[in-house]
Amino acid sequence: MFKKKKRRWIPLKDEPLTEMDRKVMYWESKGKEVPTRNLVLNPEQIEGIRRSGVVNTGVLDEVGRLIHAGMNTLEIDRICQDYCTSHGAVPACLGYEGFPKSVCTSINEVVCHGIPKETDVLKEGDIINVDFTTILDGYYSDASRMYIIGKTTPEKEQLVRVAKECLEVGMEAAQPYGFVGDIGNAIQKYAHKYHYGVVRDLCGHGVGLKFHEEPEVAHFGKKGTGMMLVPGMVFTIEPMINMGTWKVFIDADDPYGWEVISEDELPSAQWEHTLLMTEHGVEILSY
Fold first, then answer.
1. 153 close to 128: Cβ distance less than 8 angstroms
2. Cβ of 28: how many Cβ atoms within 10 Å?
3. What share of the chain is helix, strand, coil (3-state, %, to 5)?
4. Exposure pattern of 41-52 as b/e (b: 16+ CB <10 Å)?
5. pLDDT digits (tens, 9 = 90+) for 38-53
6. N or C: which end of the chain has fewer CB within 10 A?
7. Structural element, H or E, at residue 223
8. The pTM of the whole model exceeds 0.85
9. Rounded to an integer, what distance in angstroms lies between the CA atom of residue 41 and that of residue 228?
10. What's 110-138 look like in SS3?
């Protein structure tokens, strides 16, 4: 006897079917992965995430104002924590699954999850990703930016630029009633024009009511695959673009087991936005 597959999308009880219901249920009947209704947020929840995003963006603006050669990454951690808490918010990274600081600071070949340290001193020519997540009134927002310290090489400058463009083409590919795979496919094609590697071991994610939730947003893949994206969903796109191979490893010298490094130890760059899917494409909530 065949088991009946449990439906993910459940129309609201005693309510007429909406256009969203019809579209999602049609594609679910065709075997596509669709969200559960709880991933579609209401206006009050979206507004809460938007307010959190204002603080989160302000944190990264403050880093951009103060970052310079000669400072260590522990100073960046203090800047982020002070700005966040002074605006009534909480840094989500602090203590998350044992992460010891408030922000991730990833220099050159460190792909992501770099831990701030007094011994990590920024030098002329370094590129650094600063990744911060804010909790304000229970709502999460998440973004990261690249900063170039002074003047760097043309190769690193191009990598930083192309990584940002990868985020932008991913955002353009993210359309209502499209699929997560459309985003990854667009990013992968763009990065490969420059012979860069797109990290596969880490991904974007749903965010807003929790730090990480559905959907997983891979930055490579095929069109029409992965979860359907519908208006009201909030998620990140955060491609990690390596100058060489896409492969990575965890730094064995990191006692916390967090720092991810490119396998060939060539530089890596990443940009991240928190995005709201609307009827017309994505709206940026934090950048």
1. no
2. 17
3. 30, 25, 45
4. beeebbebbbbb
5. 999 999 999 999 999 9
6. N
7. none
8. yes
9. 15
10. EEECCCCCCCCECCCCCEEEEEEEEEECC
